[in-house]
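Example record used in the benchmark description.
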Amino acid sequence: MSAAEKKAAAAKAAVRVGAAAIAKKQQELDDAKKVAEEAREAAASAESMARELQATARDARAEADDGGEKRKRLEAEASSLRERALARERELSALLEEEAKARAELESRLRETQSTTRDERGALEAKLREAQASSRREADAAAAATRELAAKVRSIHWSPYDRVGDVDGDP
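Model output (structure tokens):
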């Protein structure tokens, strides 16, 4: 083989090696393009997700602000309810104290009334016994007077058949 042929064969071999290297580099370039395309798609997806997350975060902040306002409103309402409950409790305590005082006063009056009533009843019962005793004495005196009078009174009953002289006689 001649030097030209050798050079041509070496050039062909170099072209083949260069073509293989170019093909390899083209393959790597295609792979890099695919990776770059996938990366762009992933970046676009990540960017879309980031926008969604930002929107979600904005919504969450807005809800948190609304929730904070709601919480403040609910805390204010709860505080108001607590104050009203305490006021009602104080009113109830005052009413219970008044009831206890009124009950004590009524019980005291009841005891006084019972004592007075017992005393009056005792006095009335004593008067009744005295009146009954007096009435019995008067009844006994009246009965004795009636018996005494009956003993003095003579019978006015007479009959035409009575013996003369016996009409007004002692029986």
